[in-house]
Design a protein that fits this description.
It is a single chain. Helix 6 packs parallel to helix 7. The longest helix has 17 residues. Strand 1 and strand 2 form a beta hairpin. The protein folds into three domains: about 160 residues, P-loop containing nucleotide triphosphate hydrolases (Rossmann fold, 3-Layer(aba) Sandwich), CATH 3.40.50; about 60 residues; about 40 residues, no CATH class. The chain is globular. Helices cover about 40% and strands about 20% of the residues.
Length: about 300
């Protein structure tokens, strides 16, 4: 018989009063994170936004223990990141970190060898490496027969970005962290990358954490948005709730989705538009509703 009290799902990632200080005790001491409390659930697609120096990158680097807290605790999948090295190494295998412009990290003589680099370093057998490489390239939409033997440097810009993603996915992480994953890509390339991330999140139930300054992308794909300011959590909620704080976001030096900027301009001209439309379709519906209300 099912218990009357359902078992609460535990957070995948938990920050408990986390602070981080660069060059502590020196004249250049800088507080990058301050008393951060945060819980990220399995399967979440989290967008992280904030102005330069707000603590975004420092925060995500704690998730795979590239950095460890000056004070407080970071707990990933039940394992504290200040634990012994053996457990930490196992944890890092489940967290994939994609830096900005990851294609600059491609270095092997062929795409296949580049994607295989991580699994090979883990000492996996030939068949398992081949399986992972094929699966990772398939995930990112690259045909192994077409590009596998090519040099990564022969690929187009968008293909290079996807090949770099494949190298991370070949590690089969549970958590994928990306710093500005669409930076420098044309609209087609940006669309392809976002579609890939949504697919990984929805179909593979991968927890995705994405730093981005493209607010339209954040609004379109993320289930939660984290706003960082001066090393602290300023907001943490669903996109519609976060972006409804138009003036507060502007005061933090942040933009909002294109649709909300248009809506705000119309409101300043006396158009009574309600709600927080995040897409063009929602904006058109809100304008239509305002027009009907005026004509009623």
């Amino acid at each position: 018989m099912q218990s009357a009290i359902e078992k609460k799902e535990l957070p995948f990632i938990k920050f408990e009063k986390v602070s981080y200080v660069y060059m502590e005790g020196s004249p250049f001491e800088t507080i990058a994170l301050k008393d951060v409390d945060l819980e990220i659930m399995p399967g979440e697609f989290l967008g992280v936004i904030g102005h330069t120096g707000s603590g975004k990158t420092t925060l995500v680097q704690h998730i795979n223990a590239l950095l460890k807290p000056t004070s407080g605790k970071v707990i990933i999948k039940g394992v504290e990141t200040s634990t012994e090295k053996s457990k930490l190494n196992a944890l890092r295998k489940t967290v994939g970190l994609v830096f900005q412009y990851p294609e600059y990290q491609l270095f092997e003589e062929s795409v296949v060898k580049d994607v295989a680099y991580g699994p090979k370093n883990l000492g996996m057998g030939k068949e398992e490496i081949e399986r992972r490489v094929a699966a990772a390239l398939s995930h990112v939409g690259l045909d192994i027969d077409e590009v596998g033997d090519k040099s990564p440097f022969e690929l187009s810009g968008g293909q290079k970005r996807r090949a770099a993603f494949a190298g991370v996915l070949a590690m089969e992480p549970d958590i994928l962290i990306l710093d500005e994953p669409t930076a420098g890509l044309d609209p087609k390339g940006r669309k392809e990358v976002l579609e890939l991330l949504v697919k990984l999140n929805k179909e593979e139930n991968m927890t995705v954490i994405m730093i981005s300054h493209y607010m339209d992308e954040i609004a379109a794909v993320c289930s939660k948005v984290l706003v960082m300011d001066k090393g602290e959590v300023s907001m943490f909620d669903a996109p519609r709730e976060v972006f409804s704080h138009y003036e507060e976001l502007k005061s933090l030096g942040l933009d909002v989705p294109y649709t909300l900027n248009l809506v705000q301009q119309m409101k300043s001209r006396g158009v009574n538009i309600k709600g927080t439309p995040l897409t063009l379709d929602e904006m058109y519906a809100s304008i239509a509703a305002a027009k009907e209300g005026k004509n009623a």
